[in-house]
Write a structure and sequence with these properties.
Layout (H helix, E strand, L loop, with lengths): L3 E5 L8 H8 L4 E5 L15 E4 L11 H15 L4 E4 L1 H9 L4 E16 L3 H6 L6 E12 L6 E5 L7 E4 L2 E4 L7 H10 L14 H5 L2 H25 L1
Parallel strand pairs: 1-2, 1-3, 3-4, 4-9
Antiparallel strand pairs: 5-6, 5-7, 7-8, 8-9
């Protein structure tokens, strides 16, 4: 199997729990460290799929690597390769497929409940998961749903928490989190927590009972990642 290309845009927002899942399933991957100046591959010839992690930048920023990643996403979609995006990564997928990235009505930071959408796509991707689950969030923008895709997760703070289209999964929420990542972000991005809105938690709130929260969230991640990897695991 050719490796997955996993794009990291800032050092603290790596593949996290996804790397554990890939190692467990013996799925090879290559980390492409955009934050270290590593170039975006010119094509998909060397990979079996694409993964895009998060970052504090906007998908609308005029950064050369953003346009290059968008072009790579379009090429992979035409070839029906699996594509997965987390937060910024999900926004890049939406934009590449004709969607728009806009400011969300609130900043959403911390552990917040999301609901499984009432449609066949959600039932497929989240089979066996509860109707409501608590996942981690850290975003101020949101994506629209490209033509042909369907929402599979939603909540009141941000109606578009995840969408699926064929072998493509775009997440606004962060299912890749590990406990050390939550602790690191709450420290590194502490300046973003000075907000009294109920959609923004304090560092104490997001790290309280952390191990239990991460355990539950990773059960959701396991289901989503295994469903996304299905075409590769069958090959």
């Amino acid at each position: 199997m050719k490796p997955l290309y996993v794009f990291r845009h800032i050092q603290c927002e790596g593949p996290g729990y996804l790397a554990e899942v890939l190692d467990r399933l013996e799925v090879p991957y290559r980390l492409i460290a955009i934050d270290q100046g590593e170039p975006v591959p010119a094509d998909t010839a060397g990979c079996s799929g694409l993964v895009f992690m998060g970052g504090p930048m906007s998908a609308n920023d005029p950064l050369p690597w953003i346009e290059q990643e968008l072009a790579l996403i379009r090429a992979a979609a035409e070839q029906q390769l699996p594509i997965l995006g987390h937060c910024l990564g999900g926004q890049l997928i939406s934009k590449a497929l004709g969607g728009e990235i806009t400011k969300n009505r609130v900043r959403e930071i911390g552990w917040h409940a999301v609901s499984k959408a009432d449609n066949a796509k959600a039932a497929d991707w989240l089979d066996g998961q509860p109707d409501t689950m608590e996942l981690f969030h850290w975003h101020g923008e949101t994506f629209s749903i490209p033509v042909g895709a369907g929402v599979i997760l939603e909540n009141g703070h941000c109606p578009h928490q995840a969408f699926a289209l064929d072998n493509i999964l775009a997440l606004q929420c962060h299912v890749e989190m590990t406990a050390p990542m939550v602790q690191e972000w709450s420290s590194l991005y502490a300046d973003e927590l000075d907000d009294s809105a109920p959609s923004v938690q304090s560092a104490l709130q997001m790290t309280g009972g952390l191990d239990d929260k991460v355990t539950v969230a990773q059960q959701v991640a396991d289901r989503l990642y295994r469903r996304w990897l299905r075409p590769l695991l069958r090959a």
